[in-house]
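Much of our argument rests on the idea that a fold can be written as discrete symbols. In the encoding step, the backbone of a single protein was reduced to a row of integers, each denoting a local shape. We regard such an encoding as a compact summary of how the chain folds. The record that follows shows the chain in one-letter code together with its fold in token form:
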Amino acid sequence: MLFWDRRLCVDMITTEKCSKSSNQCRYEHQTSYRQTNLCPQWYTNNRCTFGEKCEDSHRLEGVPNEHRYIRTETDANVFKLLRFIRNFAGHYIESVIHDQQELYKNVLVVMVHLVHALSRKNAGSIEHLNLFLEKSAVNQMITEENLLPELDKPFSVPAIFFDRRLNYSAAWYRPTGNKRDLKFNQLSQAFVTYFNRIFVEYYQGRLRSRGAKSAWS
């Protein structure tokens, strides 16, 4: 995610050289990523004064598919949350967290937002949520009639969920910690389309054979 946090030195990416040493440069020098035609303005500021007329590239051409579809800051933040959920499932240690109930609630809300924003679905339906998540857990959180309106609102995500260096062996979560408002409905279409396909493939490969019905037409 150094790409999309815009923490890599663009000079190191394009020329493998920087006029400043790694200690003096405000950007990260340690990267093996190279792209000689990358637009420095676009990469550093997420915009370019030349727009479509720019002779350089406004995309990262040599990165994995999922990174290639990250177009906005919202995309990048949601990708961080996907990574957090994956890591949380594999590394979470109950004994180091005191307020587990509040943590579980926040994790569940994030998961609901992720599934709603990224899976295929029928308009006005919550069947896609029931397909990929435990229905009883979602119902304990909020009533069905209030669920969709709430998912259209920004959600204050614990800032620690975005930390790529999270240490699961320490007391990393505090209910009173900083939060970051995230508008899941501001994802780019390219990002949503990419993950739509992943959810469909998961359904076809794992759930359909168990008798689950598609949640979209």
Q: What stands out?
A: The longest strand covers residues 155-158.
